[in-house]
Amino acid sequence: MSTWTPEQPIVAIADVHKSFGKVDVLKGVSMDVRKGEVVCIIGPSGSGKSTLLRCVNALVPIDRGSIRVEGQEVHDPAVDKLELRKKVGMVFQQYNLFPHKTALENIMMAPVMVLKRPKAEVEAQARQLMRKVRLDGKEDAYPGELSGGQQQRVAIARSLAMQPDVMLFDEVTAALDPETVKEVLVTIRELAEDGMTCMIVTHEMGFAREIGDEIYFTDRGVIVEHGPPATFFTEARDPRTRAFLSQIL
Amino acid sequence: MEAVWDFLRHVHDAYGVNLVHFYDGFERGRMLRGMWTTLQLATLCILLSVVIGIVGAWVQGSRSRLLRAVVQGYIQFFRNTPPLVQMYFFYFALGPMMPRVENEYGIPQPILGSFEWAMLSLSFFAGAFNVEIFRSGVEAVQKATVEAAESLGFSRWQIYREVVLPLAVRVCLPALNNNLVNLAKTTTQAYAIAVPETLFVASQIWSDRINVFEMMVTLLTFYLLLVGAFVWLMGRLERALRVPGFGK
Amino acid sequence: MSGRVFAMLRPVAAPVSAEGGFRAALFTPTALVFACIAFASLVVAGEAWAQLRAAGPKPGLLETLWKWTPLLLIGPPREFGGFALNIAVSFLAMAIGTAFGVVLGLGQISIHAPVRRVCWLVTQFFRNSPWLVLLFFVMLLIPFQIRIGGTAIPLPAWLKATFGLSLPVMANVSEIVRGAVNSIPSGQWESAESLAFGRLQTLWRIILPQCVKRMIPPWMNWYAILTMSTPLISIVGVNDAMTLAQDALAAEQRSELLMPMYAMLLLFFFVYCYPIARWTIRLERRYAVKI
Known about the structure:
heterotrimer; A: 249 residues; alpha/beta; Rossmann fold; six-stranded mixed sheet; B: 248 residues; mainly alpha; MetI-like fold; two-stranded antiparallel ribbon; 10 helices; 2 strands; 77% helix
């Protein structure tokens, strides 16, 4: 960990294998994400994109290979998962807010209880985050009273309150109405512009093209090809990528 | 108050309706102490059985197969045997094996009396149901919500205490309510090991005063009021826990 | 295939509840074996204890238990009692309770408001009263014989006790019936009406047949609860297994016999009630799938 410097990849994934029973979900995936980089991962359903994100956050253990976040091996049994999860924030497709807590409480819970930071300070930060995701005024609303897009922005704020170095977005717009997709994407773009390192699994090709520094295409547990958006969308070489892109664009 | 007692005395003399347990100071005192014992027994049993339920449901989610099997064995045993025989087993079979302590007169007496044994056995009986009730509530909590808490770095116990349990309780409150009402009614069974609760005291009064019917009506009224009060309290709890937009 | 993948994902995804399959696998006949082993170890422990403090030669615990087992199971010779009486009482009380409960439950959904209210009140009253109080009520306030015309019909204690136990069963069956009928979508009533069925016809031919499946699991559940309440009749002086076990203990006067004797009694009930509980759960699952 001490050997890591900001010039090296902040997330280094090397030859990761993962299977659920007899089904191989990841079959030797490697990718490097540098600090401040925005990586978009696209591909058909069931290609292992979401599993890869979950592995980075140690929600799912891997069978073989290595995932290093800031030089620290994630799947080392001795790793402090709390330390890891302070560095890596994650936003889910289904928002997964805590339904019995207000928006503000949702944001404050982890910093107060996990990081043991003083409540007043956390509250000030949480209110600021609510403004940042343009939800000021909704602090005391319960998740059930918010729209999908609003809930998702609270979920983003909740992750940001932990002041992570890397943010993982797992198909965060897939469950939203078309009208509210935009407001969430705007929030993510602002984050990326602030220099946040992001790994984004998405089906929004236009968004990936606009925001991504590097696009990865996965299919059946492997990375088929990757490249910067300028070339990726126009000069894809692999027939699988081309077939996928022609279906979706 | 005296006027009321006098009126009841008159009712007895004139119509033969014997409400001696109201107008006679001594019997009234017995009756009230019995009701107070029932209240204490019911409250303690409810609290203890809920604790057993919460801890049991937590253990059922543990990684140790052995622990889970122990809890499962406990549930199946207490659910499928008569609570009265359980109480006898606790009081008559386990009781004598407990160490004795000396009371203030220097006479050795069992460390646990009949009240404590009734409390323990009834709590374990209702607790077995509570474990299942809480577990079903825990299972109703979305796995994704738990995952979100995990990804925020909460420990397993924090997740259970702050996320899973508060949500599970809201889901399983009606079933819990049912079981606790049942428990409050089952405290009458402590009669069998001579705990001086309402039914026991009532039976003493009706053998002394031969007013079985009047005592029965009083008893049934008391228990209906007790259950009614409890249901009302739980209804208030349910409203207090209601979260806008959660559930129906 | 996808179902299997999901099943494998579960333990990984959420440590909070990963035991579903395990529980189902472990607690089938195995539980009965476990119960017997637990009982046997209690006896052996008691035996060892008895040997340690034995003053003179006494018959072994197992021998003693064996001696009393027939009494506990079927009662004294030429008399009906013991565990068999518990079961008989449970059958009879369930039959009475079900018959009255169905009537009461249908009364609760009557179109006549007064009938509905009275039936609701009766149901709530018996549902919320303690079993033991109802039992005392019946035992002490129903005479030991009734006269019809010139003949006196004796009412033995066990019969009165059975009636006492059937009252709460009646109230709960009433709730089961009401709940099941209300769970049938109103479209069924409407379509039957549009086919010119009368209300009673609709109820008997269309609604109730659909309810029966839903009513069976909770009904069986109440049967198990009733069976486990039958030892209450020992309190009011009926010769059931509980009473006889206490008689046996009084006759033996051996403290080391207390645990095994009560454990044996618990075992009787467990062996009888546990399979019913398993069966109920299976039926619940089966009927839950197709709604």
